[in-house]
Amino acid sequence: MEPVVEIAGVSKLFSGTPVLQDCDLRLEPGRVHGLVGPGGSGKTLILKTLSTLLRPDSGSVILFGTTVDYGDRDGLRALRDRIGVQFQNLALFDFLNVFDNVAFPLVMTPDPPPTDEIDQRVHEALVEVGLPETAHLRLPELSGGMQRRVALARAAISGADLMVFDDPTGGLDPVFSSRIFVLIGELQERTGSTVVLASHDVDRMTRICGRFHVMDQGRRIYSGNIEDGRESEDRRIRTFLTVEA
Amino acid sequence: MTRVLLDVLGTFGQVILQACRVVGGLTVLQTRILLAMFPPDFDYDETVRQFFKVGVKSVAVVVATALLTGAIMVIQSGNSVQETGATGLVGWATGTAVLSEVGPILIGLMFSGRVGANNTAELGAMVVTDQVNALRVLGMDPVRYLVVPRFLSMIVMLVLLTCIGDLFALTGGAIACQAILGIDQRVFWQSVLDSHLLDEMTMGLVKAFVFGGAISVVSCYFGLNVKGGAEGVGRAVNDSVVTAAISIFVANFLVTTIWI
C-alpha cells in the first residue's frame, strides 16, 4: 500500500544546531500513528515537515505520492488542502469567535460550500467535541480544555486525508485527555483518514494508535507496534514506549 | 591592537549585513504586497476590520497631537511676530510648517508608535502561537490575508488622519493666537487663506501616503519575522518602531527634495 507520507533523509539546522538529522518516516494510510520521544527530540519539527510548514535543508518529503516542491505555491496549496493540523499551542485565531474558527477551513477554500451547509457542519463538529452551545463565544471565555476541543473540531472539519495532532492533550487533566483520545480515535474510524499524533501520554495512545514511531535527537529510531517496541534491545525505545501517563 | 581593529570591523560588518537583510526583506515584502493587490485578491472583511481598528481608534490621539502642534508653532513664532508687528504672517508661518512638515511627521510618528507597534506585536504574537502557520496550512497566504488589509488601511487612514490633523492643527494655532498672543483669530485664518497653502497641504498628504506605506511594511515585516517567544515579540516591536521612525525621516527628505 502506498504510504501517505514518506520522508527520507531529512535534515534541518537551526542556528548551526542540527534539529533533524537524516530523519525518515513512513506513514501508511488509514491508521493512527503515534509519535513519541523526549522533549526536544524533533517530534514537532517532523510534524511541521510533513505538514509542509518546515522546509528541510536536505532530504525529500513525499505526500500522497507527490514530492513536495516548496517553490510551487499552487502545488503546496493542493497538498495543504488535504491536511488538517492541530498545533501544539492550538493556534486558534483569537480575533474570531468559536464558530468562525471552526468554520475557517471551509470558508477559506477556493470553492466554499453554501452558508447553510457550513452552519450545519460547524454545528455537527461542535456537537462531536461536546461544545454545542459555544459557537458565539470568544476564545478567552473558554477553558484550556474547551479550546483544545475547538482546535480539534477545526482540524477535523474539512475531513482531511491526513490529520496531524501535536500534543493534543498537553496540560489537560486525565478525564479530558481520555476524552480527546477517544474523539481522535472515533474521528479516524469514521473518516478513514490517516492520523499522526505526538504525545507523551503513551498509555492512552496505545488505545488508538496502531503503530508507533520513536524519535530521539532528531532521528527516528523505531517504527512498529507497541509490543515489539517494548521488547526492543534498545533501552531508549523501551523507555519511551513504557512511560505511563 | 590588530585584534581590537578586527573586532570593530567585524561588528561594523555585522551591522551592515543586518541592515542589508532588513532592507532586502522589506523590499521582498513590498513586492509581494503589490503582487497580491493586482488583481485584487485579499480578504475584504479583514480589510474593513483593519480600517476601523487603525483609523477610528487613532482619531483622538491625532486630534490631541495636532491641536498642540499648531498651538506650539504659533507660540514659537509669537515673539518674532510681535516684535516685527507682522501679525498677518502668523497664519502663513504656522500653516506652511504644519501642513507640509511638522504635521505629517508628528502624526506619522504618533501613528507609528500607536498603530505600527500594535501591528508588530499582534503579528508577532500570531507567529509565536502558530496562528500564521495555521493560516498557511489552511491554504491561506499570510501576505494576502494579514498584510494587504493592514497596508491598505494604514495608507488610507494615515492620509485621512492627516487631513483631520491639519484642520485641528490650524484650529490649535488659531486658539493659541487669540489666547496667548492676543491676536484676533480672524487675522490668523485670513492669513492662512491668503497664503494659498494648497501646495503645502498636498505635499503633506503625499508624505502621509508614503509614511503610511512605510509604517505598514516595516511593522508587518518585523511582526512576521519574530523569533523566539514573548521576548522576541518585544524585540521586534522595538526594532519596528525605530526602523519606522528612520523610514519616516528618510521618506520625508526624499519627498521634500523631489517636490521642491
Description:
The complex is a heterodimer of chains A (245) and B (260). Helices cover 36% and strands 24% of the residues of chain A. The two termini of chain A are 33 Å apart. In chain A, α3 packs across α4, α4 crosses α5 (144-157) and α5 (144-157) runs parallel beside α6. Chain A has helices at 43-50, 73-80, 98-107, 115-128, 144-157, 174-191, 202-205, 226-230, 235-242; strands spanning 5-14, 17-27, 32-36, 58-63, 66-67, 83-86, 162-166, 194-198, 211-216, 219-224. Chain A has a single domain (30-48, 69-242), classed as P-loop containing nucleotide triphosphate hydrolases (Rossmann fold). In chain A, the strands form 2 sheets. Chain A has a 6-stranded mixed beta sheet with strand order 6-7-8-3-9-10, with helices on both faces. In chain A, strands 2-1-4-5 form a 4-stranded antiparallel beta sheet, with helices on one face. The relative contact order of chain A is 0.18. By secondary structure, chain B is an all-alpha fold. Chain B has one domain (41-259). In chain B, α4 (90-128) packs antiparallel against α6. The longest helix of chain B is centred in the middle third of the chain and has 40 residues, at 142-181. The mean pLDDT of chain B is 89. Chains A and B meet through α2 of A and α5 of B.
